[in-house]
């Protein structure tokens, strides 16, 4: 078949139309069994976007797994995982594509079960509009509120409340209006400006693609009409140019380009820019787009910039309009959705990724968590899976940012667990806290090296970890006696003793254990700074806190000593009678009994107390400490 | 509300292109040893085109890997070698030599065993051999139900397994690339593209594709409801089967004994796009392997299939 000029012209016209067509990314969410997958299947079916072989497979699957008798079960179109089809539930978000002459759509069908909220958040983070379903018989449920809260958290400004299964309430107008009134009030309280309520039946097709004659009292658009015509704002916030640098492109010495996607605003060749957080300035020399050099680049484009001057810019820096730069900070107020299986504990270190930068971060304080059902603010010392909260956040280095409400790219972040590498939280920055800027480091002339030299020793921290009764304190005591006799300056920080004073206010919950270790690590750091050899004797059961402690010290200053005694042996010794009481249920959260002990993966020293007696083990440690001595040190 | 007079108007294809380039740059920046799985088909052609754009004027810092099952169409292999020479990219080819020694093939061992040994196992061998920690593929979410569920950065255990019930959340375009030794990530930069987007982009950008996508007279036999092209002498003919010359083309490309042709008169890209717009069957219909048990793609993916 040869293509005539007329047909070629017709295809070119089609391409332009397709290109010019607007695209809407939306999600469907709501409680389980409210019929989300059925609604989407109905949309795909009614817009004739299913192919013949897909329809044949659907008919086959409907007979096998379907819940609609001989009729097509549209939910099976979307529940693509075997487990989902067997259990008849949606576990993870599914992306579907369809379109009409007016708009193209990418829709993310989100799971309704509370335990899969993190998958729903995955869909919501990239959506411009949300369709929230409720069952007309049940009305607004906890999960409806939770999903609406998450939509608000992720800045979705347009919500459609689809009151589904109207056929099961005899298309009752008052029932619809009661639900619509309740939901509109909720959306308003959460700051969602546009909430549109539509009564429909996904199963029967009422008000899905066309207005239904069975609800003449409803005068609004069908769902599809609304999706085709609703106006959504693409970019928001300021117009100052921002580009997070993803990749420094250096093919040879003659070219140094900074590749990234423009997050906001626009820039032209010759414009003055500033690279943050460093603050150095230059001008744009070239803008290289996907098809060659450009005069101008704007939000959404993936480009490579070259500068007039050679600046030291790295991945994660933000190149910004020099006249309107973003703020730079390391302390923030933020909102957080916790998605980890283990709880969030304030003070525990995580990785934070924002833009193209990954930094160390901790939640310093949970200001309050939010009961998504009542919007009530509740006090909390930890966050469990799927809980949402307002928190204070501390980063270990400053980053350029915008409040999330102004810019999603520069205000949205994720937290990553340092051990499992799981994505454990999604969050949005609200504003910078000034506190950090007001507490300055006081410069002191006499430093750690000077203080160590006058004592003639190399300061360090021996961190003893192990079960209660493993022999930590016994060995630490022997080591200190020996070092003291040799004329060294030492100090023991003992778990029990510190809990009588500095940490008197702390108990034995996981969050208190984290704070217990944080304080002791900071005190040990001050003592090493003072030139001392510090022996810390704490159970310190969690790897992440020991890692946090290690991070406070310089190279070679921190020696993790694993006092490795089997639980059975510790329990046999039971010097303080604690195991007996824990077994009797008189002590809770006891390490090794009903609270975990995470053994070190790579300690500097392991001491096996069942293989050698305490004196010999202490001697080994003393030799190890003194092997750090500078050459001019005294004889050991 | 479109107060963005400052912003340029980006078309749907422009947005998809920018998103894919962003993903490719994240992979280059975050992984130690990434690779692009190049399968020679139209989606791979688009991926290669995007890869060249993402790192221009530098050569892409990511090599290409082709898993050769030894049963690809001859025209595919010729096209692969020509494109590698033209673009100057680093192309590596891996064949499961153990499978070759055992004589594994689709005619003797069936589609399932052949695909598992020569494709899935071969891929795992290659990933282990080169120590790749990220593998970029051209899969799209509109292709198949289990793919519609997959993340853009899709985590794999040290055994290359996908756990669809426990995927990492993936928020905005903040991709979590942190893994431990031995673990890896599969990355799908074309996740949000549809088949139509791919063809329109090929048309707009004038991207070369394998001629098998265009109709021509080819020798085929009709077997189990599919038109199978007799691409070389290794294809055993059943009693009564004689290859007939038919005007056919392919909507997807794979191993020739497992890829059904469609009768078509579409000899040009424009005609192919027009045909696509009026078709009533999905593109994977021609794939014999997909018609194994209904959820077979998910199972194969769990075991390491792309």
UniProtKB/TrEMBL annotation, chain A:
InterPro entries: APS, APS_kinase_dom, CysN_GTP-bd, CysN_II, CysN_NoDQ_III, G_TR_CS, GTP-eEF1A_C, P-loop_NTPase. Keywords: ATP-binding, GTP-binding, Kinase, Multifunctional enzyme, Nodulation, Nucleotide-binding, Nucleotidyltransferase, Phosphoprotein, Transferase. It catalyses: adenosine 5'-phosphosulfate + ATP = 3'-phosphoadenylyl sulfate + ADP + H(+); sulfate + ATP + H(+) = adenosine 5'-phosphosulfate + diphosphate. GTP binds at residues 30-37, 109-113, 164-167. Its EC number is 2.7.7.4, 2.7.1.25. GO terms for molecular function: adenylylsulfate kinase activity; ATP binding; GTP binding; GTPase activity; sulfate adenylyltransferase (ATP) activity. ATP binds at residues 466-473. Residues 21-236 form the Tr-type G domain. GO terms for biological process: hydrogen sulfide biosynthetic process; sulfate assimilation. Pfam families: APS_kinase, GTP-eEF1A_C, GTP_EFTU. PANTHER family: TRANSLATION FACTOR. NCBIfam families: apsK (TIGR00455), CysN (TIGR02034), PRK03846.1 (NF003013), PRK05124.1 (NF003478), PRK05506.1 (NF004035). HAMAP family: Adenylyl_sulf_kinase (MF_00065), Sulf_adenylyltr_sub1 (MF_00062). With CysD forms the ATP sulfurylase (ATPS) that catalyzes the adenylation of sulfate producing adenosine 5'-phosphosulfate (APS) and diphosphate, the first enzymatic step in sulfur assimilation pathway. APS synthesis involves the formation of a high-energy phosphoric-sulfuric acid anhydride bond driven by GTP hydrolysis by CysN coupled to ATP hydrolysis by CysD. Heterodimer composed of CysD, the smaller subunit, and CysN. In the C-terminal section; belongs to the APS kinase family. Belongs to the APS kinase family. This is Multifunctional fusion protein.
TrEMBL record, chain B:
It is an enzyme of class 2 (transferase). CDD domains: Sulfate_adenylyltransferase_2. Pathway: Sulfur metabolism; hydrogen sulfide biosynthesis; sulfite from sulfate: step 1/3. Residues 33-260 form the Phosphoadenosine phosphosulphate reductase domain. GO terms for biological process: hydrogen sulfide biosynthetic process; sulfate assimilation. It catalyses: sulfate + ATP + H(+) = adenosine 5'-phosphosulfate + diphosphate. It comes from the Bacteria. Keywords: ATP-binding, Nucleotide-binding, Nucleotidyltransferase, Transferase. Residues 283-306 are annotated as: Disordered. Its EC number is 2.7.7.4. GO terms for molecular function: ATP binding; sulfate adenylyltransferase (ATP) activity. Heterodimer composed of CysD, the smaller subunit, and CysN. Belongs to the PAPS reductase family. CysD subfamily. With CysN forms the ATP sulfurylase (ATPS) that catalyzes the adenylation of sulfate producing adenosine 5'-phosphosulfate (APS) and diphosphate, the first enzymatic step in sulfur assimilation pathway. APS synthesis involves the formation of a high-energy phosphoric-sulfuric acid anhydride bond driven by GTP hydrolysis by CysN coupled to ATP hydrolysis by CysD. This is Sulfate adenylyltransferase subunit 2. The lineage of its organism: Bacteria, Pseudomonadati, Pseudomonadota, Gammaproteobacteria, Lysobacterales.
